[in-house]
Design goal:
The chain has 276 residues and is an alpha+beta fold. It contains 10 helices and 11 strands. It has one domain: 3-Layer(aba) Sandwich (Beta-lactamase), CATH 3.40.710. A 5-stranded antiparallel beta sheet has the order 2-1-11-10-9, sandwiched between helices. It has a two-stranded antiparallel sheet with strand order 3-6. The chain has a two-stranded antiparallel ribbon with strand order 4-5. Helix 4 packs across helix 5. The two termini are 36 Å apart.
């Protein structure tokens, strides 16, 4: 009888705790249109808001771009010392860029840092063309890899996340973005790039322009060591972040925030909840 009573008390305590945690999660106030908090080790969703709604993701697209290229590197298909020549198409890209000139040459390693740290659209296209022959053929690889990873609500139109000349931007769900980030963390060398806060591009020239990572939480939140930010007018301010404390690694994704400050606040709120 005593054993049954004790078991009942323990069960009641567990249910009350679970209810309290669920209530706290539901009370998280986020400004972004969609969000996900994920346990990276298990893939378990700890919090979600509109996580299945397809939305534009801007430069979070480049997580897939980096994944495709670094997986090719791991297979020995390319080398970090490979010299890549910028095409006119790559050099024409607007938005965040390193101002590549047509015919300018850089190593794959330099261009990967330009993508991961500076979110450079021209660098992303140059790398895509080098790996696949054309950006469109690279996009085919992106969509194929998305299906292989089970990202069924994702579809890519380019390697950058830039809006197309006509029509809507490509979309992902917050949940797909979190799963992509989770996979990206396992890709050799990827974290070396996305955890870098600043990088000197064209270091062999005078002036030495410095690229700064848009993920300011790398310096502002203990445990954050990746992964990517993004912005377009249609997508709003987007962010996928990973952080680790006490052997717990979390992934937080926020899509469609109204400002840079709002997306950072949302990610802080999610991580604080996960590490509570």
């Amino acid at each position: 009888m005593k054993t049954r009573c004790l078991a009942a008390l323990l069960l009641g305590a567990v249910l009350l705790m679970s209810a309290a945690l669920a209530s706290h999660a539901q009370s998280l106030e986020l400004k972004g249109e969609a969000a996900v908090l994920m346990d990276s080790q298990s893939g378990r969703i700890l919090f979600e808001k509109n996580s299945q709604t397809p939305l534009p993701v801007a430069s979070l697209t480049k997580i897939m771009t980096l994944t495709i290229v670094l997986e090719a590197l791991d297979r020995g298909e390319v080398s970090l010392t490979d010299i890549i020549t910028a095409s006119e198409h790559a050099a024409s890209k607007r938005g965040s860029r390193i101002w590549l000139e047509t015919g300018e040459q850089m190593t794959l390693n330099e261009l990967l840092y330009a993508i991961a740290v500076g979110s450079a659209n021209d660098a992303a296209v140059a790398v895509a063309e080098y790996l696949a022959g054309s950006e469109q053929d690279f996009v085919t690889l992106m969509n194929k890899r998305a299906q292989e990873l089970g990202l069924t609500n994702s579809y890519f139109l380019n390697s950058t996340g830039l809006p197309p000349e006509s029509g809507p931007e490509h979309t992902m769900t917050a949940q797909d973005a979190a799963h992509l980030a989770r996979h990206a963390l396992t890709v050799p060398r990827l974290m070396d790039y996305v955890s870098t806060y600043e990088y000197k591009i064209r270091a062999d020239t005078t002036g030495i322009p410095v690229l700064w990572n848009g993920n300011k939480l790398l310096r502002r939140y203990s445990g954050v060591d990746g992964i990517k930010t993004g912005f377009t007018t249609a997508a709003g301010y987007c962010m996928a972040v990973t952080a680790e404390r006490d052997n717990l690694r979390l992934i937080a994704v926020v899509l469609g925030s109204p400002s840079d400050a709002a997306r950072e606040e949302d990610v802080r709120t999610l991580l604080d909840y996960g590490f509570r």
